[in-house]
Task: inverse folding
């Protein structure tokens, strides 16, 4: 909330006045507060301040900044941060991919979301239900109901991932957007039997 951001900024100014040295953890809290408050410009500003203060970023820093961009529909900025991470020694984790795929999904960039989904398969990062749901939603937003159903079937057979009502709902929505009501009805029946 904005209250959390205000309190965080107040704490930062107190630290600045008292010449308290800020570290990565402090900045992560601020950037996360920016993400939760949908203030992506401030999140990126604090990344710049970190560089100016010679404070090194970590995966949590970048994930929070990507999330801030994702929540504000700034997929290009999210992808720039993702690219910075891939070019650095920072470790990409499931949160990195989930936030990046969600940023693409919210901006109707299903091709980019699917690209990221294919990249995650080439890493040691384990897919999650959130990863699949974001990719299924992205395909649905792009009118790619077949791809959405394919992802749902992969998720259903993946040992470490459990499909949920959101998985089915997003796949049904993808079918509905493309007037594939029979497919949506079949999915509804399957979901009703599964849950």
Result:
């Amino acid at each position: 909330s904005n209250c959390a951001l205000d309190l965080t900024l107040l704490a930062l100014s107190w630290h600045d006045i008292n010449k308290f040295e800020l570290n990565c953890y402090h900045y992560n809290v601020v950037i996360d507060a920016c993400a939760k408050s949908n203030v992506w410009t401030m999140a990126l500003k604090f990344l710049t301040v970190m560089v100016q203060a010679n404070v090194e970023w970590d995966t949590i820093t970048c994930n929070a900044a990507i999330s801030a961009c994702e929540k504000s529909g700034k997929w290009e900025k999210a992808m720039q941060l993702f690219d910075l991470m891939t070019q650095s020694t920072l470790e990409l984790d499931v949160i990195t991919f989930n936030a990046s795929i969600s940023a693409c999904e919210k901006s109707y960039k299903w091709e980019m979301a699917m690209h990221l989904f294919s990249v995650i398969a080439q890493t040691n990062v384990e897919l999650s239900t959130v990863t699949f749901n974001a990719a299924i939603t992205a395909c649905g937003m792009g009118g790619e109901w077949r791809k959405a159903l394919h992802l749902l079937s992969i998720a259903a057979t993946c040992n470490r991932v459990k499909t949920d009502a959101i998985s089915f709902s997003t796949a049904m929505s993808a079918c509905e957007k493309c007037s594939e009501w029979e497919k949506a009805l079949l999915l509804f029946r399957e979901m009703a039997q599964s849950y």
Observations:
- The radius of gyration is 19 Å.
- Residues 128 and 161 are 6 Å apart (CA to CA).
- The mean pLDDT is 88.
- Residues 2-17 form the longest helix (16 residues).
